[in-house]
Design a protein that fits this description.
The chain is an alpha/beta fold. It contains 23 helices and 30 strands. α7 (221-234) packs across α11 (273-286). The N and C termini lie far apart (59 Å). Strands 5-4-18-17-16-6-7 form a 7-stranded mixed beta sheet, covered by helices on one side. A hairpin with a 4-residue loop joins β25 and β26. It is globular.
């Protein structure tokens, strides 16, 4: 038996695991004592090794033939199809006729190289990734206030000492179960505050004296946060010394909050005045100004995946700043990153407007620096492209992409208004998908490229804490599979790219470090020898030998004057609000057994036995009014499309709201219903709320 230490392939918690491979090549997995998971794993983590042997694993290139079928081909044939398709698209529509869609599960080395490949080998500005659907609203809000975006600007273990934690729009019990041990202390102190329209498994932790659950109307989180800030202001509990020394804009934010008194908040959000006051009292007592042991404000996708998600996060940050939390050991604001490398994936060039090191692509100095590392003229690097929703929507439009290369993503299931996305993809002249399973997107492709899985590759990942981690190979990939770094190296050569593309992750990490040097996310001092020696390196690591930065902002924020810029925000209605023909809110989210688009987890038998199909959670009183019983098939219909699921009656959800998980495809695809309206700042679509009609479906599939 051989063994390596690595990390779980799923969420950004990146739980520590030990992998061993026996003589037959089978991989065995066990948890290890790593700070984020401390020997724990969720169901997905425990079964992750089963992914390596799924029966429909793609192990040879597939090319669509003249009959429309995907058939096995050689690598040379697949490359020839890609190169000819790219050149034809460019000849017809210029460099931006070819687009790239990346993923938040790619290693840092692959995320970096994909950004470079798009801009140098293809010459296109049209690159974005599925992290746009994950962290973009939080990133936009954090950048404009603090000048630097790292999911958690402190180690996760810091939460253990807090007297209060406000969790807005996150269900950690199902999305990151091992993280709950870090909230044990705050629950014992009665300081856990959860904002969620459902009494989720996480919200239920506030029972029996654990804290307070605030259950607002979907899309009204801003009102709740402004109401909490109002109580801080009117009670004279703001940390005025901190605010004067470390912020700008407090006056305007304070004045805006005075308009959201508790009774108005209750009318707008449905949160009772007494519960709002109880939550505010917990935060005030826990804050440094209140002589408490510390407090944290944390946001997740439930608060961020809205057409006003950036403002919602700003409201949460303003509350944290008013209490004097950010930049203090034992307190702070943070965003709970979702995807495995959602943090690193957006730092090094997959986003439409960013270059490596979290630099702006519009910054002349940044362009010069990165161009020097890449060996190309700065003027040859394209400008900003389109965020994900607009990028996909541009397909088939004049001047839009004619060819699309998808790496590590499944937008046919994960994008909003997914039926429209599927239709858009069929209009392409060339669709190339790199994946290890035939996902719903891969099944539409003209070329499918088989790539390694997580235990078959080397590289680094960056966790939700900004900690750079080692991903280690336990077994080689199947014969016929090629690593993405090798694929991009080969294609760049065939496309006559003006610079070299390394296929060795060690060389790529060295180049990434040089390209990020001096940037916000500076990896200069990150190298494999330090990580292999056990160093805990939280970026920025601005020079060789630097110990890393586990806690940000202790002395100053990353703004020109070192002060946090407070931004006043106000309540904005949801884009697709309830009305006569759609009187019910739909909210979506993750469940314990499944992950993201489900392309991986829906292939693991143990996880499928736990949750095999889509469902619709609805309140018993709503169900009674609609003639729906437990176990009935229910159709949820919006202005965009419909999805079906099995009825699950529960008093844990608001009477005006239904919930569906988004991991399923086909008739159960929740994203066939969701709204593609986007936040004007972040480009985040409004996944989390839209107006729907709900009805029972009889056995023949006809609405009853």
């Amino acid at each position: 038996m051989t063994g390596v230490d690595s990390h779980c392939p799923y969420c950004a918690l990146q739980c520590g695991i030990r992998l061993t491979a026996d003589e037959s090549g089978a991989v065995h997995l066990e948890p290890r004592d790593f700070p984020t998971n401390r020997g724990g794993l969720c169901q997905k983590g425990w079964t992750a090794a089963q992914l390596l042997g799924v029966p429909d694993r793609v192990t040879v290139p597939l090319v669509r033939d003249e009959s429309g079928s995907l058939v096995e081909s050689t690598w040379d044939q697949a490359y020839a199809r890609i190169v000819s398709g790219v050149r034809e698209a460019q000849a017809a529509g210029g460099p931006d006729a070819v687009a790239v869609f990346g993923g938040g599960g790619l290693t840092n080395e692959k995320a970096y190289t994909l950004g470079k490949f798009a801009r140098v080998a293809l010459g296109t500005s049209r690159i974005d990734y599925n992290g746009r659907f994950c962290m973009s609203s939080a990133a936009a809000a954090v950048n404009r206030t603090f000048g630097l975006d790292r999911g958690l600007p402190f180690p996760l273990t810091d939460l253990a000492g807090a007297a209060a934690v406000l969790l807005v729009g996150s269900n950690l019990s199902e999305t990151m179960p091992p993280s709950l041990q870090h909230l044990t202390g705050v629950r014992e102190r009665g300081g856990l505050i959860v904002v969620d329209p459902r009494r989720s498994a996480t919200a239920a932790l506030t029972d029996s004296g654990g804290g307070v659950h605030l259950q607002p109307v979907p899309g009204t989180d801003i009102a709740v946060l402004l109401g909490l800030l109002h109580l801080v202001v009117l009670g004279g509990h703001g940390d005025e010394d901190y605010l004067a020394a470390r912020t700008t804009g407090w006056g305007r934010v304070r004045d805006a909050a005075t308009l959201w008194w508790p009774e108005r908040v209750e009318q707008a959000s449905g949160v009772p005045v007494d519960r709002l006051r109880a939550a505010a009292a917990l935060l005030v007592a826990a804050s440094p100004a209140g002589h408490g042991s510390g407090a944290y404000v944390l946001t997740g996708r439930g608060a961020e995946q809205h057409a006003h998600g950036t403002d919602t996060v700003s409201a949460a940050i303003n509350l944290a700043l008013a209490l004097g939390l950010p930049g203090r050991t034992g307190s702070g604001y943070g965003c709970i990153t979702g995807q495995g490398n959602g943090q690193g994936g957006r730092e090094h060039g997959q986003k439409a407007d960013q270059l490596p090191g979290y630099r702006s692509i519009n910054d002349p100095a940044a362009r010069e620096h990165v161009a020097g590392v890449w060996g190309v003229p700065a003027e040859d690097i394209p400008g900003p492209g389109l965020p994900a929703v607009q990028l996909l929507d541009a397909i088939g439009a004049p001047g839009g992409p004619r060819a699309l290369l998808v790496h590590g993503a499944n937008p046919v299931v994960s994008a909003p208004d997914s039926d429209r996305v599927r239709a858009k993809l069929t209009q392409l002249d060339l669709l190339v998908v790199a994946d290890f399973v035939p996902s719903e997107t891969a099944l539409l492709a003209d070329v499918v490229l088989p790539v390694p899985q997580w235990a078959e590759e080397e590289g680094t990942m960056t966790s939700l804490e900004g900690r750079v981690l080692r991903r280690r190979r336990a077994i080689p990939p199947p014969a016929g599979v090629r690593d993405e770094l090798q694929i991009w190296h080969d294609l760049a050569r065939l496309l006559d790219a003006p610079t070299e593309f390394a296929a060795d992750p060690v060389l790529v990490l060295d180049e990434l470090a040089r390209a990020s040097a001096g940037g916000i996310a500076d990896y200069t001092g990150v190298d494999l020898s330090r990580l292999d020696a056990g160093a805990s390196l939280y970026w920025p690591v601005p020079e060789p030998g630097h110990p890393g930065t586990p806690r940000l902002f202790l002395d100053r924020f990353a703004t020109p004057d070192g002060r946090a810029r407070m931004i006043p925000v106000d309540v904005t209605p949801v884009d697709d609000d309830v009305r006569g023909d759609a009187p019910i809110y739909l909210i979506t989210g993750r469940i314990l057994q499944q992950y993201q688009s489900g392309a991986q987890t829906r292939r693991v038998p143990e996880l499928v036995r736990g949750e095999a199909r889509s469902f619709v959670q609805l309140h018993p009183l709503l169900a009674a009014g609609l003639g729906i019983a437990e176990g009935d098939t229910v159709r949820v219909t919006s202005a965009r499309g419909s999805a079906c699921g099995v009825a699950r009656l529960s008093s844990d959800i608001r009477r005006d709201t239904v919930f569906m998980p988004f991991h399923f495809s086909g008739p159960g695809a929740a994203n066939a219903v969701t709204n593609p309206a986007t936040d004007p700042i972040s480009g985040m679509p409004e996944f989390k709320v839209c107006a729907v009609q709900v009805s029972r479906v009889d056995v023949e599939g006809v609405t009853a």
